[in-house]
Amino acid sequence: MEVSGKHLHAYLGIPYAEPPVSDLRFKRPRQVSPWEGVYNATSKPPACRQVSVSLFGFAKLNYSEASEDCLYVNVWKPSQPPCSKGQNCPSRSLPVVVYFHGGGFQWGDSALMIYDPANFVALTDVVFVTFNYRLGFFGFLSLDTEPVPGNVGLWDQNMVLKWVRKNIASFGGNPEEVTIAGHSAGATSVALHTASPHSKGLFKRVIMQSGAPVSMVLTLFFSGQGKFINIAGSLGCYDTNTTFDGQINDVVSCLRQLDAGFIINKLENINFLKRIFAPVDNDEFLPFSVLSSKPWQNLNVENVLLGTTANEGSMFFHFLQNAFSVVDDLLATQYRTVSTVVLSQALHIPMSEAREIVFSYFGDYGVEHSYEEVRDVISDMFADATFNCPTQLFAEDAAQQGIGTHRYIFSYKPTHSFFPEWMGVAHYGGRLLHNGISAILKGPNSLLERIWLTH
User: Fold this and answer.
1) How far apart are CA 426 and CA 315, in angstroms?
2) CA dist 400 to 119, 193, 267, 290, Å?
């Protein structure tokens, strides 16, 4: 293909693991078996199984065609100049970028337009790898036991890094010059790999866009036995007349035999918060608490580029408005109380501490605020708790270790943004610029894109 006047090669849908179906469901990825002959790598792979999602009222992502057979990589590279037979043509190994897609560990895939790297490769001369990993129920269901160890989505990512280490030279990439990058949950994943002993030595640099390890703080409490029992029961795999320990193996066996489409249909009818599954800590892959300081004081990386947008929280406030009809009414009169309770529950802190935090944002109790002010302040609180502070803490930890650290704030709102004006530069506000999708950009947008990608 030709992009921005440059010829590129794209190798799409290369398997990196066996399909995680049947007995392999909920298990760590198994290395793919070799094949004979020429593999047809011309089609993007299906997304991993997930509940279809409405992107905060702006777009609907339909994943009805998703599959459990989804563990594939895509490799993009610039074409090499032609070399006549007999000539001594120099070859050079290009730096490699491995990109982790976002989506809160619940949705997303490598085929989405916002992750298309064609322009990035054309502008920067790198080998670019995208991939799928298991999500939600299929990727992060966890009981901290052998039948369902959890974090298999992170193990998928780890296997991709090992695949790159072993195979990327065949695509003109340098396995010693690997940068792993990601946005949102992808950035959180990247950060976790810098501390996991299982990913040590598989990359040199990281780019974290709108995500950091402590960004997991709101999902760490969404796992556990109660949620598992609720979902297993709704799927017809749990006997309430038998103890949990006495049937765990039978329950997992039942879950492995169910049709994936049937599971997704059932999950769609379960409250969103009751079907969220995300990474867990204190297991083999993450043998530590992400909320402790120790794991972040010995990072396996040489250079870090990380940042946030100017208005990270606005998109999530918009989500709350769409998901819960009572939000506007509650915030009109009870915004201090609601904010205090939510902070206390979400962060597992005493009400008195949550009250102090709310006071620091809203000020004296004698001062009332307009709806717009409340909306903006709550958006800022969410942004600070979930993105800004975790990113800053990671940057400080990295810098203190002598790691080359660069922190940015992305505050330019492109003219093509589909977010309302009040949302500012929201969570996905700079995504199209970061990957170089210049085909839809004009004027200063295209110029900014080139500056971002080439400096």
Assistant:
1) 6
2) 35, 19, 44, 18
Can you say whether the dihedral through the CA atoms of 300, 301, 304, 309 is positive or negative?
Answer: negative
Rounded to whole angstroms, the Cα distance separating 185 from 171 reads 27
Asked whether 50 and 135 are in contact (CB, 8 A), the reply is yes
Segments forming the whole domain that contains residue 365:
324-381
pLDDT in tens, 187-226: 999 999 999 999 999 999 999 999 998 776 655 555 568 8
Angstrom distance (rounded) from CA 101 to CA 44: 15
- Active site (annotated) includes residue 170: no
Q: Are residues 163 and 261 in the same domain?
A: yes
> Which is catalytic among the residues 110, 184, 196, 379?
184
Supply the pLDDT for residue 416.
Answer: 66
Residue 424 lies in a domain: no
C-alpha to C-alpha distance for 305 and 406, rounded to whole angstroms: 5
Predicted pLDDT at 334: 84
Q: Two tokens at 255?
A: 């879950």
* 289 is known as an active-site residue: no
| Across 124-133, 137-146, 163-172, least confident range | 137-146
pLDDT per residue as tens digits for the range 368-400:
888 888 889 989 988 998 899 999 999 999 999
Active site residue 312: yes
